[in-house]
Fold each of these.
Amino acid sequence: MHLYAIAVVSGSAWALYFLAGGPLMWIPSLCTSRVLTDLPNLSDFRYAMAWISPAQLSASWMIMILAMMLPMIAAPLEHVRVRSFAGFRITNMLSFVAGYVFVWMLAGFVLIGIVFALRVSQVGPLVSVGGAALLTIGWLVCPWRQVSHNRCHRRPSLPPRRVAPFLPSLKFGAGHGVWCAISCGPIMFLLLLIPEHGQGAMLVAAMWVWAERLEPAKQVKFGLSLPKRALRAVRYYGTKAVRRWDGAMGSCVGWMQ
Amino acid sequence: MYVRQNIYELGDDWADPILWYARGVQAMKAKPLDEVTSWLFYGAIHGYLRWLWDIQKITEQSDPAPKQSDFATYCNQCQHQSWYFLPWHRGYLLAFEAQIRDEIEKLGGPHDVWALPYWNYFQDGRRVIPPAFRTKSWPDGADDNPLFVERRWGEMALGPASSFDSEVDLKAMSDPIFTGPGQGGAVGFGGLDTGFNWGGGTSGGVEDQPHNIVHTLIGGEHPTNTLPPPNQTVKVPGLMSIPQTAAVDPIFYIHHCNIDRLWESWNNYPSGKPSTGPDDWKNPSQTKWRDGPASIGEREFAMPKPDKSTWVYVPKDMEDIAALGYSYDDLVPGAPVQTNILSARLAALGRPELSTLAADDAMGSETTVEMMGSGSGRVQLAGSERQSSKVQINRPSMERLVMSLDGGEENTETPDRVFLNLENVRSRSDTVIFQVYVGLAADAAASDESSQLAGTISLFGALEASSDESEHAGNGITYVLEITDIVDRLYVGQSLDADQLDIDIVPRGNIPEGAGVEIGNISLYRQSQ
């Protein structure tokens, strides 16, 4: 049930995001990176805030988070469902999502604040995007990132509290959000700085973080952790499809002869 | 056809199959670890933890490690807490036997008939490892018997295990479903649906009992010596006590041969055993099980062949032992196994036998599992004293359970089953064993109340599962104990408390504080269908 909900919410966020750049151009830039880069040259923060509303900025950040991050919480949400009394399942799952999204919104304030600061300081795109790209690459190979990835696989016990039964789920959601934001924050920061081809970049980034999350926890060490499981799945199903295609072509040729 | 025989019924302590096993093991032991057909490499296929291997003197620090490509293909592959537990280990035994047979052939022995013997420890007088594994000497007096391992300190290695009957059981053999719904409910005979799972998660039925507990009862731990820092609070475990060292003890394969026999017995013995559903006593039919973890993009099951080429297999290849060219001389499990539990339950609850129609309805209905009670969180286990805990019950859930147990004439539903979950059990020691009792009176001695015993837990595999860097990020192992019979009795005796359930945990021996044994939470589940 919650899988459908995730698919609908995340799918809608993706649709809104893509359509906002095309048929729904009338929606004022609903992508955070565009919201930020469509601004004229900024000389100070107050001037910037005259052009852009915090509500719009928050909404567009929320859309990015719902589109990209929601599919990654299917497994912990299932854990919350299983470890809840039947009458509290929905409340607890919503509490988990609330805690998770709240942390990501806080992370958004920090990341968008840095982007603002870069723009106000008139840092050129080459420097800012190049710097963020280097930072992201450095983070991807850093052992601490593996630590945060591993923590995203934690599924703690959630004994319900008498007074506020939802509290353990809220705490779990917030904690999960913290490790998720630490793990994926630099990638999101890079996305905020790429105005051109932002949609493609966001899609690629989403595919990468989804594929990465399929990997189990691993030994903490320096180096890029490739999404081997996703790659093996692609190879397995790719080979199967090719074989099926070859078989179909073979029987087709045989029939023609 | 290779026939696997009862090791205690071969006629002699050093009967031919044992003697040639020892010779094969010795030949494999002569090869270095970095050779894929060596004894140590076969051990590493199951599990490899170099620091522990060095401490346990399995390897010297200077010994070369397995080659990187071989390591990636073969090592750390054993499947635990998974529905692949049985098929993976069957393939492992087949590959191992082929290797031993190859060595026997080179030695001019009976390679065309040799097969691994099994050890049925459920038979009276056979609760200790076979004599050939307990002596340093060969039959001719030479003192380098490769079947002998010093690092076995458990009761089943040192002498007949006196507490075997109260600690080891075959309850899993009564469960007609291979893979249960999980989610706190039944795990099934063969374990839960997982991907490639080296360890951590929820243990399956036959894996928990008798597999895990027998491992620990053989391996045990050194009476005094402890591991070096940072694990100085943990006693040195016997080789069989930890998955990463278990397969370098020759008794491992004899024990697993019996576990494999139990799988065959569960499938086929006795023929025509009663079933209540189309999936009873059958292996999973899902593609994900049949085609193995590679079908979902995970590691494939791979073993080295005697010619050092790679044999890749999938669970569906392992289903039919006869098609693989093997049989067992006896499929009697060894302890009483109740196979018609539903009828017995209905009788105990004072309910009439379900009509065929109602049973059919039950078969078609969807299984639902819900949490119906929870403890207040972490329970730390230390010392040798019994520890009490309480599970607070959710009233609406209890009402649903009672309604399903109710013996009213109109009730044609199958009564719910009840399960106790010991969630996220973490430990720095795999050798810990404890028993879990339900509804024990405060002044009652646990040993006198075997009817209140929910189960015996061995923490085999807990060290790895508790590591932050393990596949499951240190979530530990979750144990699911069926307590349907206990709850039924409490209900019939009108002593089922609607608000709470008393749980008592009785350690076997002393659990040192340094072992860091903790249960994340104790919870209660009902499963309807």
Amino acid sequence: MTSITTIPLTDLIPQRAPILMVDALIGVEGSSAITRLSVRTGNIFVNDDDGTLDESGLIEHIAQSAAALAGYQAGREGATAPAIGYLAEVKDFCCQRLPRVGEELRTIIRQGLEVNGIRVIEAETYIHEERVARVQLKLFMDALVGKGGGQ
Amino acid sequence: MMLEGYYYHVNECHIDARSCRFRVELLSDCDVYRGHFPGHPISPGVFNIRLVKECAMRFFGVPNLYFSHIKQCRFTNLVSPERSPMIDILLEVEPTEGGHVVKATLSDEKQTYMKLKGELKRRTDHSFNS
């Protein structure tokens, strides 16, 4: 994969603290990408009682991973600011176990077709070799935001 | 993290044997809107999944549930504390082996925002489908 770890995440996606849920886009090849996130104490999605990352945080991490790939592609096409993508659908989310504080997630994004602004994403999240979640997402990409030049 | 008191307050709660209905008020000063998105406050879709779960935890009286499977969750309209400050959550539950299937709808008088079908289990290994 093309290594692109030097691009700041905030150049790729519009989300900011306290809900920034990707540390880095660590590789892109064609319509696939890999991202990573370290689960840390203080993360807004960490459950206080047992230090697990809530499944809603896992889904947000995956959605932002897909948005990072979209932002990378848009940047190569000349966009000057990251587009906003909204979740349109979560389908067949399966969570084998919840990640914990101290663990590092690696998420593989595979992007399908985009029809009428809806982008279909297949994703799997791993901790080392263990797959902890998979899901299909549909993201609605807001074309009016982040396209440099056009109105 | 609990979103109650941070992202929303419960204003009303009606509980029956296999269903319940909540009316919640979204809190416009929740600091998640600093980041989602700067200058453009939109409720994160996943917060509304979590909101459904917190309503279900209150219904079951069990604090540590998680969605092991979400068959489908469709977001049909954007939620924001400015445009849709009061949201109704309707839950229907059916026991399964080791958990419960939950069907949830988020709506107000104007429109439907989200429909979800998924299975909740306990974060520990204990079953809670009694």
Amino acid sequence: MNVHIENFTAGYSKQIPILFIEELRISDSDKVVLIKGKNSAGKTTCLNSFIKALPFCSGHIYYNNILLNNKSRMAILNSLGFCLIPGLSYGNMTLLENLSLYKLIYRTNFNQFMEEIIHQLDFHEFINQKCDSLSLGKRRIADFIISISHKPQMVFLDEPTAHLDKESINLLESTIGHLVANEEMQFIIATNDDTNFKSLEVKIIQIKDGRAF
Amino acid sequence: MEGLFKNIFTQSKCWNLIKYFSRKQNRIFYVLLFISILLCINYLVCRDFRLNWKFNYELKDAANCYPEPYIILKLSRFLKNIFIYFCVFINIYWIHLRNGEVKKESLLPISLLDNIISNFSIFIFFHLLFIFLVLLLVKIELFTFFPTFDWQNLTMNEFELFQFLIFDCLIFALVNSFSVLIILFIIPNYKISMQILLLIVFVFSKNIFPAENLIKDLNKQCINKFEK
């Protein structure tokens, strides 16, 4: 999926814009893109900017040369996945129930694919637990599974390794590698941890002084 | 054909949104608790009222009137008050609850129309459930507390009274649901939404509460024991 952002300004109030993107291009071949920056640099704001999910946004975003606006939004959102903070899982439902709900919202049915992913992430014993009762790390993995349940072309992950132990980080990394290679998914990941995702070929977007480049 | 209809229904996005919104509301327990407390208070008030209605009635300088209009007046006032509490509670609760979902929903391919239909359906369902419970309570009270209640001493019969109340309640349900939905989807700031809603409830929509007109009407009624 090609993404092109130009002259984009975003913020939580009109008077104080906190992120400016003059021009940013992500092409089909950029399978894993890391958004890097210090704490409070605007990494999460940058992720939200990709779909204009902020109170104040101006500028243009194109997905496969289609301008993101109210008309095209539904179609574009159908091909995107999100694992932000908080994630998409509903706490008083189990992962399986959450997956059934999202299956109906996205109108997809990838049961075998989901089974493979759950197996790959070694998450079988938690699928029938209510998400509220999962540990923070397990909840992040549940959110990740939900975010890819409809086989999106592009997935946005906000600090996916937060609260995860080394073993879970390795599993997540290998799953992302598998999805990139076999399902041709693209991942946009906001992180400030330099030690992860070294096994993957990545493009880096740096955020500094409210500017992304 | 039946299977096809069932399939369309269960696959519908609105239906599934309704299911998940309802599912998420485990705090519905608190709503039911709130209703139960109101019912208990009502039971105590009515029990007390039944024992002392002659005393209360005479205090109003209408000792020669038949008690039936006064009994209905009392029940109507209770009905109106209970709806004021319900309206304030459910409106604030719903706006507060939906406010937490806005961010999540902005990431999902749910159209504005789907969202409005699902919200409206749940909101109206809450109202209808509440209306059913309260009117059932009124009916039970009339039968159990006032077994000697004589409809001939009223200007309306039982059917007309309940028809009037149900119509009033439905108008209330529609007006309140629409107001909340319009405010919910037009004003993004939820504190301002709540303030506007409270203003509407207390200032502008006083007349939409059920039994308001009945109270006005009954206040003028005194079927005199000696004239009859």
Amino acid sequence: MRPHARTDVSTLLKNTDEVELPMDPAYYKRLHDKIMAKVTEKSMEAVPVRLRMDNLVAMKKTVSIRR
Amino acid sequence: MTRDLENITDLELIESVKGGNTNAFSALVLRHQRGLLRMGLRFVKDLDTAEDVVQEAFIKAYEKLDSFEGRSSFKSWLYQIALNTARNRLRETRRETVDVEDTHLAVGPSSETGLVHTAVSELLNKEVEKLPIRQRTALVLRVYEDLSFQEIAEIMDCPYDTAKANYRHALLKLKEAFHDRQDLKTWTLETGGFFMELNPLKEAEG
């Protein structure tokens, strides 16, 4: 066997990979602008205060103390 | 003093977005859109659909950003959203079409390696496509996205060992698929030894 001739299944998969991403930077600029145009129309959903992790921890402690 | 974008972490950008700076989200899009597109393309196969997946994933991420608490990396969280979006798209597509000719994995031949390479590619396409979705996901994230098992576990929302087991099972199934194909087996041995490395599964450690 040739030294260093072995490869693994990952390499085989990669060698037969035909996914080709667009190379043109203009494509990614357009995609970014399209995404941001949509994002600016949206607003972040506020997490209910009671469901925040620090509150859940505090609630748990309160329950423990009451016990 | 302003800092270069490369030196600002995702978490810092997220805090800035939460503080009302939409430009910080723009930086997150620039940073992750290419990787998300690549992953999306592996599942939905079509560039336009992959673009839609990326866009939808970023919009969902933005809307839910306030609930992101940094227990996993932003990248893992974002990939998880994109993966679920891609899966939903796949389900919709499968409901809409019965054209099995279109169902192939996005791996294939490269011109210089000829017919046997094509046969290997086709077999891989077919076999990877047949994998259960969780095994396929682990395989794609590990092989093509070079993610750690910790990241894969976060994205798949499962324990570390489960992510690793899914990947190992995927590799073993690919090995079985090649088992009876002596012609392809010889080719893979000549070009690198597909089977020699499968037994120790060295690449599964990580």
